[in-house]
Amino acid sequence: MLQHLRSSRAPVVRLSDKLPHGPHELDGLRVLFLDRVRVIADPVAVDDAVDALDQVHVALAGFDEPVAAFTDSLAHALALYSDETVTQTLEPIERRFCIAAGERLLADFSRDAGQPMVLHGDPWIGGNLVATSQGPVLLDFEAVCVGPREWDLSSLGEGAGPHGRPSLFERCLAARSFLVAALCLAQPGRALEIDEAATCHLMLLHERMPR
């Protein structure tokens, strides 16, 4: 993916030209050497994040290797909710709600998932989308998938709503909370912020789930 983006002008972190960029194997992990970017503390405005994301989407449009559908991550999340040995801290009533929410979201997306395109998959501000002196830059393309533009917009939060199709964006926001809560619930006690994110996104799922 980064090799494909290397010659583009998209605002992404670049593969290193100074070191053999790899991938290299280290303790069973695949490692790449990338150009150093100087991250600054300034927050990235949503409009600037959307602009950077759109530039990356244009660059990704020519990527023709097989890419998973964004709904695959939702199906994985549904499996986590359904397995009591994995999401052990989930109360039975909440488990039933989450399973029903996931089934409904997947059914809704099967009927209308917007215009499919290659996406970053998880461009959250401050994590995989960072501020630099040259402007916002995207990194960590581990969640690349095919789906509607609104799926990437949903990772930017509610402020990105005006940039997408309202009904689809709202559904993607609900699906984003469904996914994040599942991933956090599957690793209880790993870190306080992960437990807090699970609680927060479960609450948001109740609020965002379309009626």
For the sheet with most strands, the description reads: 2 strands, antiparallel
Please tell me what the overall shape is: globular
**Total number of helices:** 7
Low-confidence segments, ≥5 residues, pLDDT <50? none
- Strand content of the residues, in percent? 5-15%
What class do helices, strands and sheet pairing give? mainly alpha
First-last Cα distance: 38 Å
Instruction: State mean pLDDT (0 to 100 scale).
Output: 89
Q: How many beta-strand runs?
A: 6
Radius of gyration: 18 Å
What fraction, in percent, of the residue positions are helical?
40-55%
Along the chain, the helix and strand elements come as HEEHHHEEEEHHH
As laid out across the biggest beta sheet, the strand order is 1-2
A few lines on this structure:
The protein has helices at 2-5, 46-60, 70-82, 92-111, 149-154, 166-185, 192-208, and strands at 24-26, 29-31, 117-119, 129-130, 137-138, 145-147. With 211 residues, the chain is mainly alpha-helical. The protein has a two-stranded antiparallel ribbon with strand order 1-2.
